[in-house]
Each structure stands twice: as C-alpha cells, then as structure tokens.
Amino acid sequence: MTDSSTEFTAPIRIEVFVHAHTSAAVVEPLTDLVARARRLEDAIGAAVHIETWTAVRPALEELSDSGPSITGTVEAFQSWADQEGYDLEPAFDWRETPSVIGHRAAEVRVPTACVAVYADGDLQCVAPCTDGDRSYTVMDCLARLEEGVIEPEPFDTRERNDGSRGASDSDESTENAERYAHSEELE
C-alpha cells in the first residue's frame, strides 16, 4: 500500500456498492472489501461512500418519488464504459423478465460488489469491467488506488500466480466470494 503521502491532483471520491441480498458466505469478504476501501481515506485522502443496492426494474423505480437511482447509476457507468472502451457485462446485466400476468419488464441486475472512482467529480473508473480480453475486478481497482493510480489496468493473472503482485489470501477470498455470489444471484 502506498504511504499516506500519496497525493492525487484532484479530489478523489470512491463509491463502493455492495449487493443488499447476498448469501451469508459473502458477508465477511464484503466487510473486508469495505474495510480496505475505508483505509484509502487515510492512505490517499479519498472520500469513501458505501451504498447497498440490488437488482431493480426501471419501470417501478421511476414510480418512486425519489426517481431512478440505481438505474441512473448503472446508466452513468454504462456511458463511461462506452466512452472508454470497456464492457460492464457480465457483471451488470439488463434482462427482460416475465410477470405472472404475462407482461415482460426490463430488469437491471447488478454485481455483488462494485467500485466507482471519481476525480474532481468526473467518473474515472468502474469495476468490475472488461476490456474484451481481460477482466478488471473490484480488488484490482482497490490495489491500483493503493498504488496511486486511478485508471483501469487489469493485472496479469500470471503476476498474481507467481506472487509478484502479492495478492493476499483475503484478496483472493473476496474475489472468489464476488464470483460465487454473482453466479448464485443469476441462477
């Protein structure tokens, strides 16, 4: 981890989203993920905000007096991905779901954990995402922030396996929990 003297040229805000409906097996790894993000407040002077979210049907969300918050967030993330050449799938998923009365409704499915990084108010990074060849995980994003870098850059899997990146057991268990929880939700 970088020391607390790491300074970014613009104010950094980190938003961490955790799925509100996950299995009990995922609670501890998500707690560890949130703690790691919170350490960035002191390490790099970032403002960290934690929020829970869940899959949503945009048509129902629009009925709310507060308006479409999750849908709007996911749309902003998708706009960033489109502009920067990243893909949010399969972590984020738009689906048509049937109802008991025969109508179909769009549903936005969100990952178990997500990190969005803003510099000077502008969205700079969303994880998880892919660049077509490699995946960029939430843990990759936090590790890059600890190194003082905002931009997405997936770590090479070979680097993790030979230990040169020093991925901890906690990092690995959190990533495994992310994968498990997301696949469980999609079933």
Automatic annotation (TrEMBL):
UniProt xrefs under InterPro entries: HTH_63
Compositionally biased tracts (Basic and acidic residues): 176-187
Region (Disordered): 150-187
One Pfam family it belongs to: HTH_63
Domain of life (superkingdom): Archaea
Name of the protein in question: Uncharacterized protein
Organism of provenance: Natrinema limicola JCM 13563
Source species taxonomy: Archaea, Methanobacteriati, Methanobacteriota, Stenosarchaea group, Halobacteria
